[in-house]
Structures are given as C-alpha cells and as structure tokens.
Amino acid sequence: MIEESPQRTGREVRLRGRDAEERLLADPGQRAVLERLVALAERLGLQPELRLEDLDAPLIGAFLDHLERDRHNSVRTRNARLSAIHSLFRFAALRHPEHAGLIGRVLAIPPKRFERGIITFLADDEVQAILQAPDRTSFLGRRDHALLLLAVQAGLRVSELTRLTCEDVALGTGAHVRCRGKGRKQRATPLTTTTTAVLAAWLDERRGKPTDPLFPTRQGAALSRYGVTLLLSRHAQSAAQHCPSLATKKISPHVLRHTTAMRLLHAGVDTSVIALWLGCAVRRSVVSPAQRAEMRGDISGSDG
Questions:
Q1: Lesser CB count within 10 Å: N end or C end of the chain?
Q2: Pick the residue with more confidence: 199 or 117?
C-alpha cells in the first residue's frame, strides 16, 4: 500500500510491506514521480492512502497531461516520468500478479512522439572565443578556463565534470582523466598536451586533497550542474562580443560534448571509437548523417 507520510518537508511516499519495494523507492527519481502523482491524486479527491488499484491508466494519463499542461514540462520530460512509472509497474507485476490487468494497461501507455532537434556544435573559432572569455587573472577565471578546456577536449558529461576529484586527473606519461559515467561505468580519457599543462597548473594552484572536488565553488563544494550551465552561458555571452556567430546558438554543456564528437569526426576518427571516447552506452553514430557529410565537405555552401 502506498501512503503519504504526514510529516514532510517535501512530500514523502513509500511502499510498505516489503524491503525490496522500499529499496526501489529509495531512488530519488522514482520518489519524485510518486510525490507528484500523489499530489495530483489529492487534487482529484482520492483518499490520502493510495492503493495500487487507485493508480490506474486514466490517473496515469491525467498525470502525464498535468505535467505538460500545468507544469509546462517538455515531451522529453513527460516521457522520462512515464519511463519511471513503467519501471515501478514492471516491478509491481512480479509482486502483485493479482493486478495483472491494471498493470498491463499502465504499461501499454506509449511514450509521446516528438521531433528531435539537431544538436548544434561549435566551430574552432567559437571554441577559442569561449576558452578565452574567462578572466584568467582571477582564481575563478582560471577554474572556468580549465573546466571548459577539459569539457571540450574530453567530451565529458556535465554530471561527470561535477563529480571529478583531484585524484581523477593523472598527469605525466599517458596523461588522462578518469570518470564514472552512465551505468557506473569507469573510463579513462586521454588528455592533450595543452589540457595537461592547464590542469597541472590548476592542480598546483588548487592544492586540494585527493578526494576534494576538482572544480570547487567559492565555498569549496563541488559545482552543481546548474553552476556549470550558468558559467558556460556567462562566458558564451561575453565571447559573442568578439565572435558574433555565438549569439545565434543556444549553448549548453551538452553542446561542448557534441563539439568534441564533431572535432574527432573531422580528424578522421571512426564513429565507434568516438562512442567509446564519449562513454556512450551502445555503439551508435553520435552525429547525424547530414552533419557527418558537412564535416567531411560533402555538402557545399552553394545552391545546386
């Protein structure tokens, strides 16, 4: 039975009766989805303590519509919430076979289709403009420069950047950076001579313990995803004054990661190797066919 705890700073929902179920809901993503689902159920007048049979397909459909209409979530976010719900109900199917019909109807709710936009990437002059934007006469400016250089050279995810510690950087012969990506997979990404020199200088100035964040805030804590996005946006706006083409692009940490892939492709690296470099879960093309053709010069800028 799903119940709402009366004492909460944020709404708490837990599945009682089985340790395995409680471990499942220990996942923050699962709990967040259930919290919003319970809040919607209360608005619809359902009893505070929800049973599994209350979570039927019409309620789940109303919840997904609520995310888009009232919370203004994107279709991608809506599908991510549905995926979390499906994960919960697949688990429930093993524990509560008596509700197989209800569970089957919820699992039959399909993800919503949407158009996938082509992720942009930065040209070499745009990359250089962003790297030159931080004020390297200040501590935070040198931190930002080292972070941006590492991001665009190694192609790390923003979550991987924020989790890096000082001991994750190995200098000297075979310089590389170690990180833990999706699925807790460990990988080591080689560093260029320039990036190695910048990180060596930064570590010498940083003087942190091995387990300290590589890129700290003013207070010494690890940067958040929002913090990295904010500093990139700020430096991109500054760089746009000298490189006007940046003003026409929406730049995010993922754009830097995509730029890494495109630069490797332009250098003649096979796409399967690029996927390994970036830590992709499966071996697949990380760029679209049109972008691959453009980078190889197969598409000219002239008409016809």
A1: C
A2: 199
